[in-house]
Write a structure and sequence with these properties.
Layout lengths: L2 E3 L10 E12 L2 E4 L1 E4 L10 E2 L2 E3 L7 H13 L6 E6 L2 E3 L4 E10 L12 E5 L3 H4 L6 E7 L2 E10 L2 E4 H17 L1
Parallel strand pairs: 1-8, 2-9
Antiparallel strand pairs: 2-3, 2-6, 4-5, 4-10, 7-9, 8-9, 11-12, 12-13
Length: about 180
Amino acid sequence: MRHIVEPGAPLVQPLTPAAVLVPIVKRASGLTVLLTQRTAHLRDHAGQVSFPGGRCEPGDDGPVATALREAEEEVGLAAAQVEVIGRLPEYRTSTGFAVTPVVALVTPPLNLKLDDFEVAEVFEPPLSFLMDPANHQRSRIEWQGALREFWAMPWQGYYIWGATAAMLVSLHALLAEGD
């Protein structure tokens, strides 16, 4: 299995299995990607932009089931509106997760119900913006005494970065291979 390792991510096991849904919404105006802004009080990744998702639970039948369950729990996205079309390479985070991004097409209308403990808001940047390499920025930060690099894609006041941006860059690379 191909995987992407976040710079500074642990290379030893065990990593906690997790999955996210990369929901591509079929809007009349064009394809968008549904992203969440996490609430500011959370212990992990507070205030960050992310895909709906989380750790795999014992009752989940694989990463697709985890991604669909988490999307329903976090934003109320009904599985009946979701058509899974593939997976991106596993992404290993510096916080100890092995994340499987599950790519899906989503059919509106969306009757979202946000889990207000985890999700402050949702927004939908155009897929065309996110897939344009001109919008893929490499940034650096010193963290815990080491220089770390990460992807970022600022969009209309939102700062899409880290694992979320890296997964979008991975999606771009996969789509570019198909051209």
